[in-house]
Amino acid sequence: MQMNMEAVFREIESFRDEMVNTLIELIKIPAISPDSGGEGEYDKAQKLLEIIKDWPFDKIERYDAPDPRAKNGVRPNILAYYYGEQGEESPRLWILTHLDVVPPGDLSKWTVTKPFEPVVKDGKVYGRGSEDNGQSLVASLYAVRALMNLGIRPKRTIILAFVSDEETGSKYGIEWLMKNHPELFKKDDLVLVPDGGNEEGTFIEIAEKSILWMKIKVKGKQVHASMPGLGLNAHRVAIDYAKALDDFLHEKYNARDELFDPPESTFEPTMGGNPSDAPNIAPGEHEVVFDCRVLPQYKLDEVLSDAQDLAEKVKEKYKKEIEGKVLPEIEIEVLQRLDAPAPTPKDSEIVKLLQRAIREFRGKEAKVGGIGGGTFAAYFRRLRIPAVVWATLDETAHQPNEYAKIENMVEDAKIMAALALL
């Protein structure tokens, strides 16, 4: 086994330049969700299939989730199988990465290169999607390629999953696969989601907080700002409500759990605005969005109920009848919701295997913990399939000048290969 591992690691090292080139080719293709104004992942999936078409995978399957907003009306999900030493009867290891990326954001902040014109500089590959999730996607590919080249059948069948829609909720990705193709998943599968971690590669995520994105939409009556009594300023109502909600949620849901970083629930107002386009217009509409990351001990239904109860109190405070209509109106829209499942047990096989690989091949002790969420792992935990999130990342995801460190890509590929062999 030790000789096999050393040979595999050398083979992965030999792919360094090819790995960089593959990452560059993938970064060049924007794969932005229609939810964010993009065409989806179709072109990137086609490129990936072109790259691996001659690789000796035992089976490659493609599952297209229908989405009329996306290019060719689909959001592709690809599964590539490399069987273990017992063929299809081998125990199975999933490595899941996602094809989609977030939008570039403020282009003026990209000072190294343009988002989809990747460059290599100082041992890093710069570009949108380089670290999130291109680095791990390429690492998983070449972990398997090394085994193929050496003719090694691993202890575990490796299923590489390249899925859509991670960045905007997974409705057309892993969630769609689990709903429409439950036969793909087995209770004794091991699952690695290389989409979170730290710079040392010593953090293994086994738990996530619940996620709730709420949009609060307030309606009043637009009026000239010099005559506020003739209308109802939705902006004033919204900021009053938002401040009251912020204070209330932090006070009520104040428990701490040191498994997580940060150890408490978070409630962040992140977006807001109204159609007022002049200083002298008191707007009749205003919206505020909250990003809530809630410890699993709390129920999101209760958070939503509290938000609604507070909305009723604020409506009563500002209650006014204008032209036969009672104002303000306050509507709470759920943009995204993910109720946290039970954590992956600390003593589960995938946790112990990953800790062993990091200890033996990096000489480091990895700790387990929780994050604000969310990743694919939550969907597997909901099926009671143990899953971990791990990678070696500088955490530049979603930022301008996002990059993937080449060394991390190569070294993580070695750990991925080791998980299939140990």
TrEMBL record:
<dbReference type="InterPro" id="IPR002933">
    <property type="entry name" value="Peptidase_M20"/>
</dbReference>
<dbReference type="Pfam" id="PF07687">
    <property type="entry name" value="M20_dimer"/>
</dbReference>
<dbReference type="InterPro" id="IPR011650">
    <property type="entry name" value="Peptidase_M20_dimer"/>
</dbReference>
<dbReference type="InterPro" id="IPR036264">
    <property type="entry name" value="Bact_exopeptidase_dim_dom"/>
</dbReference>
<keyword id="KW-0479">Metal-binding</keyword>
<dbReference type="GO" id="GO:0046872">
    <property type="term" value="F:metal ion binding"/>
</dbReference>
<comment type="similarity">
    <text>Belongs to the peptidase M20A family.</text>
</comment>
<keyword id="KW-0862">Zinc</keyword>
<dbReference type="InterPro" id="IPR010182">
    <property type="entry name" value="ArgE/DapE"/>
</dbReference>
<dbReference type="GO" id="GO:0016787">
    <property type="term" value="F:hydrolase activity"/>
</dbReference>
<dbReference type="InterPro" id="IPR050072">
    <property type="entry name" value="Peptidase_M20A"/>
</dbReference>
<protein>
    <submittedName>
        <fullName>M20 family metallo-hydrolase</fullName>
    </submittedName>
</protein>
<keyword id="KW-0170">Cobalt</keyword>
<dbReference type="Pfam" id="PF01546">
    <property type="entry name" value="Peptidase_M20"/>
</dbReference>
<keyword id="KW-0378">Hydrolase</keyword>
<feature type="domain" description="Peptidase M20 dimerisation">
    <location>
        <begin position="206"/>
        <end position="318"/>
    </location>
</feature>
